[in-house]
Structure formats: C-alpha cells, structure tokens
Amino acid sequence: MTIHLFGIPVYKTLLKAHSQVQEDFKDVLEDDSNFSKIPTWYSNVDTTYGKPDATNLPFKQFIRSAIEGLNEYLETFQVDRQLAEAAINENKPLTVKGVIQRAEAKNQNGRVYPKDLLMREAKKYTENFIQQKRALGELDHPDSSVVNLQNASHNVLEMHFNGNDLVGTVEVLGTPSGNILKELFKSGIKLGISSRGLGSVETIGESGAQEVQPDFELIAFDFVSNPSTHGAFLSPMNESVDKTKQYEQRPDCGIWCKTEQLIHDIITEK
Questions:
Q1: 10 strand-pairing partners
Q2: Which DSSP symbol is given to 128?
Q3: Rounded Cα gap, residues 121 and 35, in angstroms
Q4: H-helix or E-strand containing 19?
Q5: Which pTM value belongs to this model?
Q6: Cα 114 from Cα 102, distance rounded (Å)
Q7: pLDDT (tens digit, 9 = 90+) per residue, 9-43?
Q8: Integer Cα distance of 175 and 149 in angstroms
Q9: 234, 264, 268, 88: which is closest to 165 by C-alpha?
Q10: Which pLDDT score is estimated for 9?
Q11: Domain limits of the chain?
C-alpha cells in the first residue's frame, strides 16, 4: 500500500521473506553495539550506518526480498518491443499487466478512492463485465458513459488487489484502435490506464482532497497518455489528468454543487 508521510508517498508492504529477515536480524537487533547515533542527523535514530561491521550484517536476503516487492509496485504497462512486434506480425493478441487504480491515496486529480468503495466496484465490474468477456475500453477518455464498440481497443481479462493497488491484466484487441495501441507499444511508448466512471466527490480535510462518494459507478478502463493514478503506466470520473482549468467547487451551494459537478464532469472532463 502507499501511505503519505508529510506529503511524500511512501510504499509500505510486507516482504515475502519477512519471517526469514526477522530471524536473520534477531541477534543484530538485540546487540546495542551494532548501532550508534549520527550527531549531524540531529535525531535520536539508532543506525548501523558508519559502523565498521555493518557490511557483514545479513542484508542480502532483506535486499533481495525488498527488490521483489518494489518490482511488484513498479509494475507498469510497458511491453517488450519484440513481443509487440511479434503480436503485430503474427496477428496474435498482446497482453499487458499493471496497476489500473489505487485506493486510499490522493491521485493527480486530487481524488481519493476509499478501499471498500473500490473493492465493491471491482467486484461488480468483474461479475458484470470481465466474466462475461465484455470489459472493453477505448483510447483516451471519450465524453460518454458507455463504451463505443467501434472504438474499442482492449479487453480487461482479470483484476485483483495487491494491498491498495488494483492490478489488472489487459488484452489488446485486433481492432483499428487496438492496432494503434500495439504500434505504440511496439515503438516503446509508455502508456497508462485510467478508470472511467460516474459519481460525485466531497472535499475532505485541509488538504483539499476530494473523496469519491458511494454513488460512484465504474464504467470502464481506458488507455491514456497521462494517468491520474501514480504508477498506473500503465467525475463522470475519467481518471486521466486534465491539464486545462479544473472545475472549482463552491462550498455555499449545497446539493446543487454535486449536481452541477456531475453535469460538468459528464460534459467536459477528459
């Protein structure tokens, strides 16, 4: 999961080799002589930094396990160019995988998706679309609450949670739009994926973050050049970043703000 420490996103996870690392460092942690304080750090942090024997500490298993965890977090929609070229030449499906949405973290549009809400919509989307083989998406976010079949470029095959990250596997189709997607991957272009949905938001806290409300309904996942979810390289809420002037909510208009926000998002947000 990703947490924010003084505004800085920090990735937090349980290492697969947690028990082994814990056992390896047990004797180290119980021996105070392995630690010291660095005066120039102006803190009470105990560290092995600067200790002569620090290089002999059992860090190998920890580092190996940490790298595995980071690789999962950094998983993006990047495809080997040769695989993409082979898919084009042999007219075979191209499958990509990566983070498609993230819960409990403020995205670049300032929105936060509660974990229970995202889990609810992921379950509904899996049952109503993925399992019925109609989880289609398009290139960029169209101004529509439905997927236009003639513009379909890909189909979501499965998705699952890894902590707060919603990870998905996507098949690129042999449609005109899908072939554009293949060519982009073949050229080594880094692409993101972004959710499209309908719903309202409410401002929470002093940070100005907008929490997505229970009326949210997930419609589709579209490929975009600039996804709002950090690391998803891969409101109606077309979750790509709109670089144009964003709509400003007015705190004095009550329920009409929600209505106006919804209508505005449906018509203008991309």
A1: 3
A2: I
A3: 48
A4: helix 18-24
A5: 0.59
A6: 9
A7: 566 777 778 888 888 888 888 888 888 888 887 77
A8: 10
A9: 234
A10: 59
A11: 2-72, 76-268
